[in-house]
Amino acid sequence: MPPAQKIDTAFVLAAGMGSRMRPLTDTRPKPLVTLAGRALIDHVLDRLNDAGFSRAIVNVHYLADQIEAHVAQRAKPHIIISDERDVLLDTGGGVKHALSQLGDTPFLIHNSDSVWIEHSHPVLETIQSAWNPHVMDSLMLIAPSVTSLGYDGRGDFMLDELGRLSRPQKGTHAPYVFAGVSIANTQIFDNAPDGRFSLNALWDNSISQGRLYGVILDGLWMHVGTPEALADAEQAIAANASAKSGERA
Description:
alpha/beta; Spore Coat Polysaccharide Biosynthesis Protein SpsA, Chain A; 7-stranded mixed β-sheet; two-stranded antiparallel sheet; 7 helices; 13 strands; 29% helix
């Protein structure tokens, strides 16, 4: 099987209300909340740029002017705004709204509150290397539920020996949680509804066809969704920096 064409376009989900991050989001959107000296959205965009993505479509809704002004200061990657000021479309509706900007080739989807500490291999390089559009509708970045920071749920997915994902039985725990990054074929949106809907609906359809796959994050995933999770992420990043400094000394 020939290698898939390199993916160079990403969609960054930045339109949410950030309700769980209040009071920090009373006057600024969550993507502009600062973590380790940088806005959350800059953690995302810097990683995308370092991984060779040339374009990032950023959707906006809550305090949209602030996000637009912030990303306008960046030279790379090239930023295109997907405007959802009139109506918030959720994750799936937001991506579908921007399909004309994304083009007709596979693209990456990245939550603006998803960050991580990498271990031995660049995460965005790993997910691109594992992508196979011939058998996959979408490839999800997943992380162990029990070790992820800022996450206290039951987990999202089971993973089989071929890398295919499934949902856990109702009321049970799953070993893996969605880590906020995925690659998608545009065809996954062919029969998607109009208006507001979650990407989960499309993923569940792909699961039923055996076309939803996962790759495990090599590192520590941090879901920065609350002030408490933000504080935990600050501590983890500082501890990691201190450990690396000690190794170099």
